[in-house]
């Protein structure tokens, strides 16, 4: 690859191979050009990281859902390749976030962001100073937010890119726009998942123009984004589009990750209720219903979806589902895992020690009561509202008997309750999935972690450590002003050390498949997770490698999964640990 684009040249450098081109315009504004399959883009150096990073923002990777294709409107349809343009297109600012639920207090959320249905754009961050001509590893991040909120552009990835990777964030359709389904071939759902596949195809075809290696792509995600990564490792549509995967607090087996038979609100019922709310009343004719829904006001559709979600107390009603029309998820994740129908890639996955801890103050108020078994049952039931009452009772009983064995004091009940919810929502599904992956994909590298660090600025009760999503501050550099400005205050030396450890481990995994770290205290050995030696790394200011005993965790979630989807005909093979 030509190296002229790596220099801050005084004039445009024309490269015959279409690689990134650099131009300095004045003393402070450094612009860069990239030739994509759709046309030339102009990006700009962003301030902050120690290594100069060029950001290309607002790149269309598919046509807007508001456009028409040869087959008609694109709302509730598979994405279509973007139009080309002539000349140079500015990629200097973010585009609208996708229509979504707003109002959450999120460290990454931009309260001034605009939202619209025209939102399918991505952003590329690439270092502009390098020591080699070789293309850089690529990381593609999928944001979380329960499939109905969040934005890729909320994350300033320039600090991670400065570690020597090309980093991509993007938007995908959310809520009903991404997942509405009448459970037939007309409205099969999973449009948001197809957006993710389209973004990965764009990366495959274009990332070399930004100095990235299209054959060394790592996808990463957190929470619902992590479940998306997990689903992509199972989807035949994503085969060959990435070589490594990072999953933070979310699995395809999580009780909220897909539409389960045990859900009391089916996709078809929610689609009918939303349709009636916007006066689309031909409920038994999916073709006519689709035509009506494509003409409905987008904000009215979103309002109807959010209102029905609240009224039904169903938690999430528009989420990924099993379907064979597009074929993104052709069967239950547990069935695909049991058959070994998995994309063979390196994986790194894990969860936080007190994921649900952040919800405790919300659930109880500022003065939590003494945690009795009655209170514990309320907490457990609060996480099962999507299921039928009978299934809820069965699941709560499994959670109580598995994790709240010591009921002698409020402290033991409190700890057991939090562990039960954490393993129900995040930990156990991830361990259960990993057990299958390592048995069917032994030739690849697999790593498991538990993030256990309590930040100096944590406002959680002292008995809690790492809450849901807190590791994201450390991945994107805890020193960023966007974090310190939101009430955290400046990080201390230990916070910075943990942040550097996470950034180094994650980017080293993307580079080599080995999440090593040289950060003092945090540089503990992290061996692969294997069936015979289920190692995991407990990440803290002084990280430690430990050995998991997965049988009890898997048996716990096996009972729950059987409740959600019916008993499996393929048993999980016991693991020695």
Automatic annotation (TrEMBL):
Residues 1-21 form the signal peptide. Keywords: Hydrolase, Signal. Residues 35-544 form the Carboxylesterase type B domain. It comes from the Eukaryota. It is an enzyme of class 3 (hydrolase). Its EC number is 3.1.1.-. Belongs to the type-B carboxylesterase/lipase family. PANTHER family: NEUROLIGIN (PTHR43903). This is Carboxylic ester hydrolase.
């Amino acid at each position: 690859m030509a190296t002229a684009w790596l220099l801050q040249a005084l004039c445009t450098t024309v490269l015959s191979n279409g690689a990134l081109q650099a131009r300095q315009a004045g003393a402070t504004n450094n612009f860069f050009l990239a030739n994509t399959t759709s046309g030339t883009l102009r990006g700009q150096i962003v301030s902050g990281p120690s290594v100069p990073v060029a950001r290309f923002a607002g790149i269309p990777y598919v046509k807007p859902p508001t456009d028409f294709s040869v087959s008609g409107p694109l709302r509730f349809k598979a994405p279509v390749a973007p139009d080309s343009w002539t000349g140079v297109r500015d990629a200097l600012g973010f585009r609208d976030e996708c229509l979504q639920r707003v109002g959450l207090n999120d460290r990454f959320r931009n309260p001034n962001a605009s939202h619209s249905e025209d939102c399918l754009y991505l952003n590329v961050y690439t270092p502009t100073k390098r020591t080699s001509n070789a293309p850089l590893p690529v990381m593609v991040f999928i944001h979380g937010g329960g499939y109905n909120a969040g934005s890729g552009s909320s994350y300033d990835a320039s600090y991670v890119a400065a570690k020597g990777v090309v980093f991509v964030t993007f938007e995908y359709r959310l809520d009903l726009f991404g997942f509405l389904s009448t459970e037939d071939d007309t409205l099969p759902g999973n449009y948001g998942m197809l957006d993710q596949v389209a973004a990965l195809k764009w990366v495959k075809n274009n990332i070399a123009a930004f100095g990235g290696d299209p054959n060394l792509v790592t996808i990463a995600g957190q929470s619902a984004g992590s479940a998306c990564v997990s689903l992509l490792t199972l989807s035949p549509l994503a085969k060959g589009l990435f070589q490594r995967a990072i999953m933070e607090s979310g699995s395809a087996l999580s009780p909220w990750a897909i539409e389960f038979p045990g859900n009391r609100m089916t996709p078809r019922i929610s689609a009918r209720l939303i349709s009636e709310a916007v006066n689309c009343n031909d409920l038994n004719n999916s073709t006519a219903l689709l035509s009506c829904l494509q003409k409905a006001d987008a904000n009215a559709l979103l309002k109807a979806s959010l209102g029905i979600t609240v009224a039904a107390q169903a938690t999430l009603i528009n989420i990924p589902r099993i379907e064979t029309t597009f074929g993104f998820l052709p069967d239950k994740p547990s069935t695909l895992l049991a058959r070994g129908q998995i994309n063979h890639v390196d994986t790194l996955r894990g969860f936080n020690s007190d994921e649900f801890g952040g919800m405790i103050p919300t659930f109880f108020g500022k003065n939590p009561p003494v945690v009795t078994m009655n209170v514990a049952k309320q907490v457990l039931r609060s996480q099962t509202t999507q299921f039928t009452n009978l299934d809820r009772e069965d699941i709560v009983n499994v959670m109580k008997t598995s994790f709240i064995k010591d009921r002698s004091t409020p402290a033991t009940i409190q700890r057991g309750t939090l562990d039960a919810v954490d393993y129900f929502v995040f930990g156990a599904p991830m361990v259960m999935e990993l057990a299958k992956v390592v048995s069917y994909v032994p030739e690849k590298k697999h790593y498991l972690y538990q993030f256990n660090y309590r930040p100096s600025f944590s406002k959680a009760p002292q008995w809690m450590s790492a809450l849901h999503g807190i590791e994201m501050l450390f991945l994107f550099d805890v020193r960023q002003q966007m974090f310190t400005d939101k009430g955290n205050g400046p990080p201390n030396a230990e916070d910075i050390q943990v942040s550097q450890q996470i950034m180094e481990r994650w980017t080293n995994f993307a580079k080599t498949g080995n999440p090593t770290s040289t950060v003092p205290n945090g540089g503990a050995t992290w061996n692969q997770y294997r069936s015979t030696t289920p190692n995991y790394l407990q990440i803290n200011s002084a990280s430690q490698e430990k050995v998991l005993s997965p049988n009890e965790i898997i048996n716990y979630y096996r009972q729950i999964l059987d409740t959600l989807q019916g008993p499996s005909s393929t048993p999980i093979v016991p693991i020695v640990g």
